[in-house]
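User: Reviewer 2 asked us to show a designed sequence for the structure in our supplementary figure. I'm pasting the structure tokens here. Could you produce the per-position amino acids so we can include them in the response letter?
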């Protein structure tokens, strides 16, 4: 349901990105690539197995209705199994590669864990002091009956709070501070959370 709700904004984003790149290329007078691109048949023949983990993820989530966490674990297991069984460009996935990947994943998640811990601390303090509830009332009172004003103020706050923070930490923070005010004004929970997510990423 969440993926379907985010599909239309995602399509609009990539369409806007395509037109922006096309306009910049036209303004810079960039010409078409003259070098030959690899044929799709050759690419699929060599790397078709990369599609399997994505297909497993989609089937687990949408057909079997499993949780995203379990679906990701099963898709990762499928990717590891295929990587060890089928070589890509003459190399199979070995035990040392798996260990190195796990170590790299752990290092990349260190910053995210610290950021989420800090965001959780801020949310805990706000909930303990009642400031999060006060912020919700303040936003609703400030906007009055005008939903457009509320969305404008909430969008501006989301952009400011989202500066320099990872997407997950931004969403956790905004979901506790901004989303309740939007939901209280009559907006559906899905639309409210999508709103703060996209504005927090700007």
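Assistant: Here is a per-position design you can include in the supplement:
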């Amino acid at each position: 349901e969440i993926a379907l709700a985010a599909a239309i904004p995602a399509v609009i984003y990539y369409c806007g990105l395509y037109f922006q790149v096309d306009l910049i290329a036209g303004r810079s007078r960039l010409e078409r690539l003259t070098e030959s691109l690899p044929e799709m048949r050759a690419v699929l023949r060599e790397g078709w197995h990369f599609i399997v983990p994505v297909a497993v993820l989609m089937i687990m989530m949408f057909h079997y209705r499993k949780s995203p966490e379990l679906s990701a674990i099963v898709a990762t297991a499928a990717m590891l199994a295929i990587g060890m069984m089928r070589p890509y460009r003459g190399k199979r996935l070995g035990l040392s590669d798996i260990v190195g990947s796990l170590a790299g994943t752990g290092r990349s998640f260190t910053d995210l864990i610290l950021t989420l811990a800090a965001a959780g601390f801020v949310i805990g303090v706000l909930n303990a002091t009642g400031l999060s509830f006060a912020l919700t009332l303040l936003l609703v009172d400030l906007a009055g009956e005008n939903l457009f004003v509320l969305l404008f103020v909430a969008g501006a706050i989301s952009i400011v709070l989202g500066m320099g923070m990872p997407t997950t930490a931004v969403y956790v923070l905004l979901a506790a501070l901004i989303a309740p005010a939007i939901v209280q004004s009559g907006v559906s929970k899905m639309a409210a959370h999508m709103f703060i997510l996209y504005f927090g990423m700007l």
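For the response letter, you might also mention the following. The radius of gyration is 22 Å. The first helix runs from residue 2 to 27.
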